[in-house]
């Protein structure tokens, strides 16, 4: 009996996206095998962190890298090292801020999102600049004081409307001696994003391991400049203090490294064709339905470079009914207004065929 049967857990198909509530993404056989190998031996965790960091940095054209338990843990770690700036007395007391340490982290109001608490957990106070419509250079320049620990910037295209371009944020912050941290948790593909933000001058850039990289769900990566990554190694988990809750295992670290290597070495053009083909498998089945309009959208929910199949239905009520009926068949799909959508990222070809058959049924039933 498998453990899934033993626990009576319902397996789902994930045709929606790499969301944590579904378990994120799927690790490859190679990743699982590399995790099994490191699990069989004991290691010096400090040496492992150093070696993996050097190897990940080389793969991603960065100076250095630090492995953590996810992007939320990476935000806490980055905030903590920006506040303490190498002072162990200040660090040891976080999240209480002592000795006039700079504790303000500037964020753009238009980028406000659900991960604020991961930043505040380190002891930071978030200071917002700009509004929903625009953020100007003087909003940032005028807000920087001796209390400013860092600027945290969220790379998602969702925030493009009111944002100040990253390059301008970096220029202004650096002119005032303030580091810039970019949260790019879900910003893959394109693979070039692994070095684009650091090459633009960002000090630390954060990626989730469990999203497009297909590493363990509980893994994440901080890429960046050596002086900051050195501080992550010195103060970050497994050291005691505010980052200890961001502890990650040797299995998760090696799993993320393995997944990262496979991702960087992937033929991304060929992969794009594979994803389009997988959408095509579903589209040909649905084209036969009347009153359904199909649309291939060439970006992910936060502006990533991959295709999704939108199925435009008659009304939001019908879309909700189809979404609900698919859930009852143990398949996750997306819902947006009067449309449902399918992402090919986490599907096998076999699952794509199942999704196509289920969608045909549920759409017919909802008419
Ligand atoms: C998913 C996400 C996170 C959290 O990532 P985890 O790896 O699940 O901790 C943080 N920031 C953004 C913008 C995200 O999309």
Automatic annotation (TrEMBL):
<dbReference type="Pfam" id="PF03841">
    <property type="entry name" value="SelA"/>
</dbReference>
<dbReference type="InterPro" id="IPR015421">
    <property type="entry name" value="PyrdxlP-dep_Trfase_major"/>
</dbReference>
<keyword id="KW-0808">Transferase</keyword>
<dbReference type="InterPro" id="IPR018319">
    <property type="entry name" value="SelA-like"/>
</dbReference>
<dbReference type="InterPro" id="IPR015424">
    <property type="entry name" value="PyrdxlP-dep_Trfase"/>
</dbReference>
<feature type="modified residue" description="N6-(pyridoxal phosphate)lysine">
    <location>
        <position position="211"/>
    </location>
</feature>
<dbReference type="GO" id="GO:0004125">
    <property type="term" value="F:L-seryl-tRNA(Sec) selenium transferase activity"/>
</dbReference>
<protein>
    <submittedName>
        <fullName>Aminotransferase class V-fold PLP-dependent enzyme</fullName>
    </submittedName>
</protein>
<keyword id="KW-0032">Aminotransferase</keyword>
<comment type="similarity">
    <text>Belongs to the SelA family.</text>
</comment>
<keyword id="KW-0663">Pyridoxal phosphate</keyword>
<dbReference type="GO" id="GO:0008483">
    <property type="term" value="F:transaminase activity"/>
</dbReference>
